[in-house]
Automatic annotation (TrEMBL):
A GO molecular-function descriptor: ATP hydrolysis activity
InterPro entries: AAA+_ATPase (IPR003593), ABC_transporter-like_ATP-bd (IPR003439), ABC_transporter-like_CS (IPR017871), ABC_Transporter_VariousFunc (IPR051782), P-loop_NTPase (IPR027417)
Claim: Nucleotide-binding is one of the keywords in the record: yes
Pfam families per UniProt: ABC_tran (PF00005)
CDD domains reported for this sequence: ABC_DR_subfamily_A (cd03230)
Protein name: ABC transporter ATP-binding protein
Residue ranges constituting the ABC transporter domain according to the UniProt record: 5-225
SMART domains according to UniProt: AAA
Family annotation (PROSITE patterns): ABC_TRANSPORTER_1 (PS00211), ABC_TRANSPORTER_2 (PS50893)
Annotated keywords: ATP-binding, Nucleotide-binding, Transport
SUPFAM superfamilies: P-loop containing nucleoside triphosphate hydrolases
């Protein structure tokens, strides 16, 4: 099988931080949400995939090492950088048309119209319109892989919803894959097929989103009752003033053993918080 992204034993070290033995695969046609606290390593991982920084290990995109020929297949939204802040839409279209053989001017201007991006130089656009323009530019050469680093960060819910709708429309094309790094887990609840969670430079888990609700649960219990349960199911717990929340695994098996227990379906954010802050 050829993967959109295949990472084997990736290591990258800085003075006060390192990615440690990351192994991760993004299948073709899949939207992967990449989550983790600030400083967890999400951006370093993306920069490594794109060849923006050196690393140890092996990264393949569609079965190949990063090279100039892959630019047609990859659309990128990363950081605050844009190729120039002085250009307006028409000039951006001309420049990008010279870069990409598959650049679709009609699609680009349709996206700009749909997203209500004003015809101003990039530096004069609002934060939301800058992101929308980056996304329109990333999509308009029809890439097979989108790599997005916090594309909706700092945007209001209406703008985020518009952007997610554009992604929904785009991924209807067979085989399109997205790596979507964000700390806004509610966006991933809407669009992601699978979730990869990085913490302190390590991959904690990768699971399909639909499986997460079956595998994990939040047991609602108390100090008096927690001893009634087999702690082999416990992953992490958080102790409140009046109750204890426990992140459990093998939820179905646990419920068979303890049918009267109160077990809630966790959100992505619940799992992330429990794994990071639980004991």
């Amino acid at each position: 099988m050829t993967y959109a992204i295949e990472i084997k034993n990736l290591n990258k070290s800085y003075k006060n931080f390192s990615l440690k033995s990351i192994n991760l695969r993004l299948e073709e046609g899949i939207v992967m949400g990449l989550i983790g606290e600030n400083g967890a390593g999400k951006t370093t991982l993306i920069r490594s995939i794109l060849g923006f920084t050196s690393y140890k290990g092996d990264i393949k995109i569609f079965g190949k090492g990063m090279n100039k020929g892959l630019k047609e297949d990859i659309g990128v939204v990363i950081g605050d950088k844009f190729f120039t802040e002085k250009l307006k839409l028409k000039k951006i279209d001309e420049v990008m048309n010279s870069f990409y053989k598959n650049w679709d001017s009609n699609y680009f201007f349709d996206l700009c119209k749909k997203l209500e991006i004003p015809d101003k130089s990039f530096k004069k656009l609002s934060a939301g319109n800058k992101v929308k323009l980056k996304i329109a530019t990333a999509l308009s050469h029809k890439p097979r892989l989108l790599i997005l680093d916090e594309p909706t960060s700092g945007l209001d819910p209406i703008v985020r919803a518009e952007i997610l709708d554009i992604f929904f429309d785009y991924i209807r094309n067979d085989g399109v894959s997205i790596l979507f790094s964000t700390h806004i887990t509610s966006d991933l609840e809407k669009i992601a097929d699978c979730i990869a969670y990085i913490s302190n430079g390590k991959l904690v888990f990768k699971d399909y989103k639909d499986d997460i609700g079956f595998k994990y649960g939040i047991l609602k219990t108390s100090e008096d009752e927690i001893g009634l349960y087999d702690d082999k199911y416990f992953i992490k717990k958080r102790v409140g003033k009046y109750n204890i929340d426990v992140l459990i695994k093998d939820k179905s098996e646990f419920k068979e053993l303890y049918p009267n227990s109160v077990v809630e379906k966790p959100s992505i954010e619940d799992i992330m918080l429990m794994l990071k802050r639980g004991i």
